[in-house]
């Protein structure tokens, strides 16, 4: 973990934020319709045509060369790592470098390896733009060897992307594909525009930190389609930031997407930071779609939080753009929070991709300010309504909050085992409804509730805005989605 003393504080509580801009959205602002069931499919990918690139010419494959490297443990994680570097070849392109995995060499190396493999890894010591080409049969073979939990790590000197093999190989949308292209880009006309876009909306690009784009494309018979939506799958990417000087304790990560009538909308990107042995700082981002990321700064403060117990959490979330005040200067920490307000906070906090289509709630109109967030939350399985209604203006009670928090845990960390507390010690009045009891046990076990009185649950009590902010910050810390 990075020591705060290594970084000097910026003046005026300026905070650092990570921004994402969807280049495709910037160029093509229209969003098409898709119903809720399709948007919520776990492994359904959205694809869009892109301009084709030149096909990869076959070439002889040497043994692993000096320009390759084995990604470090902090990138690969635990488990057995299998290197495909010996099957790599590179060629210079107008935009940077193309790094291709040779199909025959990769399959032969896999056949010779008898151990269980958790992560397939390739590393290219190339700065600037790098595009990795993975033949679909190679991804399929890796998936068949490792199963649904396997991953393919693609790393360059600029960053890395960890692709779940199930995203590539266990998906009808990619069946019969030729190559999957994963690009890590730090230069280009659209990328160069990002700092100015941040400046135009009151955000400042942090000096000497790169802007980086991560993009997945499927190529079949010379035709390319962008994978713009990873369904409910979170993909981890890293960005090498160099050795910037800033206050890690006051870091907030921002992304910029486009959902509001073609105007770029800035929001949070779940991020943590890691400092490696040579002093290079890396941002580790978890997202469910492509994006361009930039480090920028911002500050926020509310006058009515000066002596309030929820101030640290509210300040942290406000400075990331996850929560907003009732007015620019007042947060209203003791006011009740509505269902729509918390769902909007949760969607921003998880950095979820936009989902098109209606939420199928009779009381949520497309023109409502919360319509997009409710639609996204429904598509990701975070919310359900009551008899076809969402009740957006009704106060959120504690057992509903517990269900939302538990659903977020399951979405972000599928398959994880969470602590569950017993409810037996609480009075009859403090027992939640049967549909909320399992979630209440998990949220209590993981200590995600803020503002509870000792010995009381009050499952039907309305949650305040301050309590909701504290619970959300605890959730994001638990998931590793904000710097802790």
UniProtKB/TrEMBL annotation:
Q: Which domain of life is it from?
A: Bacteria
* Bilayer-spanning residue ranges: none
What region holds the SLH domain?
A: 297-360, 361-419
Report the InterPro entries cross-referenced here: Cell_Envelope_Struct_Comp, SLH_dom
Listed name of the protein: S-layer homology domain-containing protein
The record lists the organism as Cohnella thailandensis
């Amino acid at each position: 973990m990075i020591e705060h003393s290594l970084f000097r504080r910026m003046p005026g509580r300026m905070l650092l934020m990570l921004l994402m801009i969807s280049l495709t959205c910037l160029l093509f602002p229209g969003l098409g319709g898709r119903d809720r069931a399709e948007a919520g499919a776990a492994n359904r990918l959205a694809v869009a045509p892109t301009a084709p690139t030149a096909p990869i010419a076959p070439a002889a494959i040497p043994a692993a060369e000096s320009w390759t490297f084995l990604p470090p443990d902090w990138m690969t994680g635990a488990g057995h790592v299998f290197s495909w570097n010996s099957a790599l070849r590179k060629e210079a392109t107008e935009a940077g470098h193309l790094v291709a995995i040779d199909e025959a060499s990769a399959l032969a190396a896999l056949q010779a390896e008898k151990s269980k493999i958790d992560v397939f890894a390739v590393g290219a010591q190339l700065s600037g733009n790098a595009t990795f080409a993975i033949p679909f049969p190679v991804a399929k073979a890796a998936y068949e060897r490792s199963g649904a939990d396997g991953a393919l790590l693609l790393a360059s000197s600029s960053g890395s992307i960890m692709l779940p093999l199930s995203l590539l190989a266990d998906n009808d949308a990619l069946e019969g594909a030729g190559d999957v292209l994963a690009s890590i880009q730090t230069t280009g006309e659209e990328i160069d525009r990002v700092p100015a876009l941040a400046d135009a909306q009151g955000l400042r690009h942090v000096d000497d930190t790169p802007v980086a784009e991560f993009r997945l494309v499927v190529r079949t018979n010379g035709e390319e389609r962008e994978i713009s939506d990873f369904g409910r799958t979170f993909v981890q990417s890293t960005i090498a930031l160099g050795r910037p000087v800033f206050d890690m304790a006051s870091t907030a990560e921002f992304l910029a997407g486009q959902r509001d009538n073609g105007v770029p909308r800035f929001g949070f990107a779940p991020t943590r930071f890691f400092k490696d042995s040579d002093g290079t700082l890396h941002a580790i981002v978890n997202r469910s779609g492509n994006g361009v990321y930039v480090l920028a700064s911002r500050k926020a403060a509310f006058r009515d939080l000066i002596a309030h117990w929820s101030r640290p959490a509210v300040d942290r979330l406000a400075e990331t753009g996850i929560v907003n005040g009732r007015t620019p200067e007042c947060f209203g920490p003791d006011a009740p929070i509505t269902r729509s307000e918390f769902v909007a906070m949760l969607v921003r906090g998880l950095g979820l991709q936009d989902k098109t289509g209606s939420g199928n709630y009779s009381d949520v109109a497309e023109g409502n300010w919360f319509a997009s967030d409710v639609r996204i939350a429904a598509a990701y399985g975070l919310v359900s309504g009551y008899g076809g209604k969402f009740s957006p203006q009704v106060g959120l009670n504690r057992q509903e909050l517990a269900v939302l928090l538990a659903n977020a845990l399951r979405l972000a960390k599928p398959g994880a085992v969470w602590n569950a507390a017993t409810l037996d010690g609480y009075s009859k009045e403090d027992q939640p409804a049967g549909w909320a009891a399992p979630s209440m046990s998990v949220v209590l076990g993981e200590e995600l509730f803020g503002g509870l009185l000792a010995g009381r649950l009050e499952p039907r009590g309305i949650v305040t805005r301050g309590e909701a902010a504290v619970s959300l910050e605890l959730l994001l810390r638990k998931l590793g989605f904000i710097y802790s």
